[in-house]
Each structure stands twice: as structure tokens, then as C-alpha cells.
Design goal:
Layout (H helix, E strand, L loop, with lengths): L19 H17 L12 E3 L5 H7 L6 E6 L4 H16 L5 E6 L4 H6 L7 E6 L2 E7 L4 H19 L10 H4 L13 H12 L3 H14 L4 H16 L4 H10 L4 H13 L4 H13 L2 H18 L4 H14 L1
Helix pairs in contact: 7-8, 8-9, 9-11, 9-13, 10-11, 11-12, 11-13, 12-13, 12-14
Protein name: Tetratricopeptide repeat protein
């Protein structure tokens, strides 16, 4: 089990990127051409986060991706999880100091790009590496998991494509009179950081308590709600015998607790539709306390993935049909 990957529903197998050799050759050719022309000038920190539209996509994303990975954040003004995720990505882009560039795409204004990338729900995050597009994750996620995905992306971009990032002139923004980019710490940053550290240490109970502390003051905090659901899930599956859980679920289809355990394990394994379908079916064929237990666990798993994910929307509709 790889618990920190469990919620990144679209995590790509970067080692299986098609045409990797060809893409690497193109990236090397582009860098050689830039060197012949005097090299690529350093960029300002503010240029590490850019707004991209359809007209500028080739210039701003595809060409830049021959120097550093470009992380593409598909968002919309009406999307509440986007408002939680985007500031984290922007801050990390500046912190990583040129190891990747963040390109933000407003899906309402760029429907063609949304269709080309096959976006079905937002927020959705992709990467473009040496001209190759690949999905990273969909929905909001705790910062620890985002960092892990970015670190993997940067490592593979360097090892497979030779992309070492772009130079950043830290003084450029100050010279141009730009406003400082760093935002003041939020009221719950310390608690959220404590939760992330606990997750990294596999202290899922400690992480869950830190997220509960945030929610006690701010019940609508999206990051804390998502983090709590994931920490609780990871805590439940930590000591599971995967083979026994799957065998029990297969042998006892009417045992609600066996189906709940299998659903937890499936979700941690990176599946989404299977555990949702399993629990919807458990709700359909049970009554009383068993039905309520299956329904509540399904709602908890919805929180792990995020309410705006299309798979959650579909499963909610299926649940409503069996309940009513």
C-alpha cells in the first residue's frame, strides 16, 4: 500500500510516458538552440505563475515545457475547492524556485483546452513535460500529497528528459516595483502544517486530531475536511490484511462490515468507482443499522475524493436512487 498516493486519483505512471525518447530529443534540441542564441534569460518570481489561454498555450506551456515541467491548474471562479487548491500551487511554484512553472487555465474561458485535456471535473491538475501532457490529480488534496507528486514529477523530468528547471532572478520583481508575493499566514496554518507533518510520519491519529482542531473553529474549512477524511481512512486501513479483507468481502456479500472494509481498501489502492459501487449496492440490499453504516461510510469516502469530482456526483445520484 502507498498511502500518500491514494487520493491522487489521476496519478500518472511517469515511467510509461509514450514517446519519451522523442520528447527528450526535442527538449535537448530546444535547449541547444537557446544556448546558441545566448541562453535563456532568468525570469522573475512573478513569472513562475502565469495565466494561460488557448491562443498562448503553445508559447506559454508547450515551449516552456522544454525547460521545466509546466503544471497546469484547471480552475473556475465558481469552484470552491479550486479556491483552496490554487493558492497552495501558487505558493509552491514560488517556493520551488523554477523547478516547475504553474500555468492557470480558467475553464469557463477556455472550453477547447478543457475538452482537449478531457477534463470532467475541477480542480484538475496536469503536467506538460517536454511537450508531453500527463494527468497528476483531480480535486483538492493536502499539501503533503501535492509536494510528493511535484517531487516525483521534477525527479522524472530531470532523469528522463534532462529538464533542470529555469533560472530565477529573485531581484527582478523588486526592481520592477512588483508587490511582494508572499501572503501572510492564515489563522490555521500552524495546525494544518502540524497535520501534514503527522501524515508524513504516518501518525494518522495525530493528523486527524489536528484537522479536527481546525474544524472546531472553522467547520467549512475545505482543506481540513479533506485532510480529516483521508487521515481517518489511512488509519483504518493501516493494519488491514488486504488478501483477507478481499476474501471476506467475496465470500460474504451480505456482510456490510466486510464490504465497508473492502471499499476502504479499494479507495486507498487508487480505485474510486469500485468502492462507491460496492457501498451503493450494500445500501440497496440492506436495512436498518447496516444500511445506515454503509451510507455513512460512503459519504465519508465522498469527502476523501472531493464533492466536485464527477465520480462523486454520479455516486451521489446512484445513492439517491436506492434510498428514495
Amino acid at each position: 500500500m502507498q498511502p500518500r498516493n491514494m487520493s491522487m486519483s489521476g496519478v500518472v505512471d511517469l515511467a510509461a510516458v509514450k514517446a519519451a525518447g522523442e520528447a527528450k530529443a526535442k527538449a535537448e534540441q530546444a535547449r541547444a538552440e537557446a544556448a546558441r542564441q545566448g541562453g535563456t534569460p532568468a525570469v522573475s518570481p512573478s513569472n513562475l505563475v502565469i495565466d494561460v489561454d488557448e491562443a498562448g498555450f503553445e508559447r506559454d506551456v508547450l515551449q516552456r515545457s522544454t525547460e521545466a515541467p509546466v503544471v497546469v491548474d484547471f480552475w473556475a471562479e465558481w469552484c470552491e475547492p479550486c479556491k483552496q487548491l490554487s493558492p497552495v500551487l501558487e505558493r509552491l511554484a514560488r517556493e520551488y524556485n523554477g523547478r516547475f512553472v504553474l500555468a492557470k487555465v480558467d475553464v469557463d474561458a477556455n472550453q477547447m483546452l478543457m475538452q482537449q485535456f478531457g477534463i470532467q471535473g475541477i480542480p484538475a491538475v496536469f503536467a506538460v513535460v517536454a511537450g508531453q501532457a500527463l494527468p497528476l490529480f483531480q480535486g483538492a488534496a493536502p499539501e503533503a500529497q501535492i509536494r510528493q507528486t511535484l517531487d516525483q514529477l521534477i525527479q522524472v523530468a530531470e532523469e528522463r528528459f534532462g529538464l533542470t528547471g529555469i533560472a530565477v532572478d529573485a531581484d527582478a520583481d523588486a526592481a520592477a516595483g512588483a508587490e511582494p508575493q508572499a501572503a501572510p499566514p492564515g489563522p490555521y496554518d500552524a495546525l494544518l502544517e502540524a497535520a501534514v507533518r503527522a501524515l508524513d510520519a504516518d501518525d494518522f491519529a495525530g493528523a486527524a486530531q489536528a484537522y479536527r482542531n481546525v474544524l472546531s473553529d472553522d467547520p467549512g474549512n475545505t482543506e481540513a475536511k479533506l485532510g480529516l477524511a483521508q487521515a481517518e481512512l489511512l488509519g483504518r486501513v493501516r493494519d488491514m490484511d488486504a488478501q483477507k479483507v478481499r476474501d471476506d468481502a467475496a465470500r460474504r456479500p451480505g456482510d456490510v462490515q466486510a464490504q465497508i472494509a473492502a471499499a476502504d481498501l479499494d479507495l486507498v489502492g487508487g480505485h474510486v468507482e469500485d468502492p462507491f459501487g460496492r457501498l451503493v449496492e450494500a445500501v440497496r440490499r440492506t436495512a436498518g443499522e447496516d444500511r445506515e453504516a454503509a451510507r455513512v461510510r460512503l459519504l465519508e469516502l465522498f469527502e476523501v475524493i472531493g464533492p466536485d469530482d464527477v465520480r462523486v456526483t454520479a455516486a451521489r445520484s446512484a445513492l439517491a436512487r436506492v434510498l428514495f
